[in-house]
Amino acid sequence: MAILVTGIAGFIGMHVAAHLLARGEQVIGIDNFNDYYPVALKEARIAELVRLGGDRLTMHRVDIGDDAGLAAALAQAEFDRIVHLAAQAGVRYSLDNPGAYVRSNLAGHVNMLELARHRGVRHLVYASSSSVYGANKAMPFRVEDRVDHPISLYAATKRADELMSETYAHLFRVPQTGLRFFTVYGPWGRPDMALWKFTAAILAGRPIDVYNHGDMSRDFTYIDDIVAGVIASLDNPPADDGAEKPGGFLTPHRIYNIGNNRPEPLMALIATIEKACGRTAQLNMLPMQDGDVPATFADIAAIGDDLGYRPSTGIDVGVPRFVDWFREFGALGATPA
Fold first, then answer.
1. Which structural domain, as residue segments, surrounds residue 77?
2. Is 309 marked active-site?
3. DSSP code of 220?
4. What CATH number does residue 9 fall under?
5. What does the alpha-carbon distance between residue 307 and residue 242 come to, in Å, rounded to a whole number?
6. Any domain includes 319
7. Local confidence pLDDT in tens for the 337 residues of the chain
8. What is the dihedral of CA 230, 236, 242, 244, to 10 degrees?
């Protein structure tokens, strides 16, 4: 039986699908190929998946927020698991385009829940985000922490997704795992992320914007480690046994952090990029941006204890891999003039 992967033309979706295809799975992919960043990069990711999977990959160009379009696209499709990664990404973009987040992150998530409910799927794994922790000051962030003070609309939609998922787990016993991703990076990444922006600017000799005057840290997580956590979660659905799960739920629903458990100062990231590029960055120091947080740090004890998740790639390894990829493919993320 096939696995449905939403957001398959996205960064994480492409890598998860590649892993599933590599182990012989049938994959049904959904993506709306929106222009939040250059579509050429998304098309190139899909071309790579076609090369890897051939006829074991079926693609549907449809928006998960489009009820009728989604139903029509999947009417004849057979699948028993869903990896739901499609969403409107970006904390800062949500300040200017709130409607995109309502359609994709809220309506789209409900559509996936309904699909899981009526198709009787064995497991729905969905993407949440470390942004749900908002301005929490206690470090590291634990899944047991309160997350009812989001500081961006993006974060609010992701927390709403978690709560809606709990409702469906309670009412319809849909087995689900929510994954709070922490600053994912690596080859085939997104042009709106700091690592891409910094690398592009440094190689081009342009200054880079450094917010909060560089006094920031992030739990940078390499894409291979993220994929390992997603696949381990997918292969081990939560039991409907009444026992308390990570996140505090008694239903077949749990939430995990997926991070590197080793936050790195922003200036250390920049130094690592400089070394990989062989050039020195020009720094434009700026105050903190609205909706941003000074630090993220994942407590990954729950997913480590339950599924054996052990991230192993530090920025000293992951950043040079990205820079090598960027030198060959970075033009795919260039914004058309």
1. 2-182+223-260+298-312
2. no
3. -
4. 3.40.50.720
5. 19
6. no
7. 999 999 999 999 999 999 999 999 999 999 999 999 999 999 999 999 999 999 999 999 999 999 999 999 999 999 999 999 999 887 778 778 888 899 999 999 999 999 999 999 999 999 999 999 988 888 899 999 999 888 889 999 999 999 999 999 999 999 999 999 999 999 999 999 999 999 999 999 999 999 988 888 999 999 999 999 999 999 999 999 999 999 999 999 999 999 998 889 999 999 999 999 999 999 988 888 876 778 888 999 999 999 999 999 999 999 999 999 999 999 888 754 3
8. -40
Q: Among the options 154, 185, 222, 309, which is catalytic?
A: 154
Distances (CA, A) of 84 to 179, 276, 279: 10, 33, 39
> Could you tell me how far CA 25 lies from the centroid of its own chain?
21
Q: Is residue 252, in this structure, part of any structural domain at all?
A: yes
Domain membership flag for residue 171? yes
- Would the pTM count as exceeding 0.85? yes
Number of domains in the chain: 1
Give the distance from CA 192 to its chain's centroid.
Answer: 13
